[in-house]
Amino acid sequence: MTSPRADDSASPSFRTRITERFGIRHPILAGGLMWLSDARYVAAHVDAGTMAFLTPRSFDGLAAYRAALRDCKALTRGLPFGVNLTQSRRADANRLVPAWLDIALEEGVRHFETVGASPGPLFERIHAGGGLAIHKCAFVEHALKAEQAGADAVALVGAEAGGHPGTNELSAFTLGALALERLRVPLAIGGGIGDGRQIAAALALGADAVLMGTRFLTCEEVWAHDGYKRYLAAQPAQSSTLALRSTGHPWRVLDNATVRETRRLEADGAHRYEDFGALATGKLGRDHGYRHGDWDTGLLSMGPAIGFANAIEPVTATVERLMAQASGAARRLQSLSAPPPPANANATTT
Ligand SMILES: Cc1cc2nc3c(=O)[nH]c(=O)nc-3n(C[C@H](O)[C@H](O)[C@H](O)COP(=O)(O)O)c2cc1C
Prior knowledge:
350 residues, alpha/beta, TIM Barrel, 2 domains, eight-stranded parallel barrel, two-stranded antiparallel ribbon, 10 strands, binds flavin mononucleotide
């Protein structure tokens, strides 16, 4: 399943089961980003030596989705990239999942990030097509079930994760340490990761990769309005908040006027997604925040890792910085575990 990358001359700083199986140079997976992980963004990650996942739900119909896959294939010159297959809680929203998978397989995609309950049948279809699946979830129990159901790897996301982290309140590192006691398949951890020192820490923990989203939102290859990205680049970690807690399906987003409006509605008793009308739809954020730079309108997925993003720069530059930080942290760890000095080193001579 591993494939050679464009510039194999650049040696990897870390080799793990995930870098091997996903054919990537660095232990970084960039999770699917609704509306934003299009062909250009995904291809930029391939160039940077990482893997990102295109989100089929972002496209207006199957033909547009297939066209995006073809664009990505052309941009990546045949190197592997991924597709995100999210099964929603709402059964009617999953009608197209089999078609998304079939089209991806037809177009040569073999790496999938799956999300949602009962992924077993999806794993079977992916494996029948020669692909592999990393299943993203927020509970250790779900990770173990996914492993039993045939997941090739698991990504556990903590409460810090941008988007829909689930109702779990544990951090990525707590979940990761707990999972590693019981899980056999390779593990990625995600949520709140935006500095390379956290990548080294995840590898030291025993994880095979990290899964990141928010840290890349200010990258040049993200198509969102420049004004929006500049606003994000100025935000501290605290500007991320959990919206729609009352629904039981919280959404980690940029704290803005729309969040405040949903809280007013919650105070008046709103507690189902329907109660929030257009405010709870992703399209509002796409049309205002992403398209026009109006960061106050819409629920805009974003986690505290935004505190690490302070410039608009290409994905490659971000990844290079992350990996330099990770290597520095690994060297520090090594220096700390240096053998003790010889017994007579401290002896004083008189
Ligand atoms: C803007 C944005 C959109 C996202 N959309 C999706 C999505 O459509 N499907 C999905 O599985 N995860 C989605 N996520 C979650 C990411 O794939 C990833 O799990 C998360 O960003 C990792 O946590 P971090 O944001 O703290 O790095 C989204 C995250 C962000 C920030």
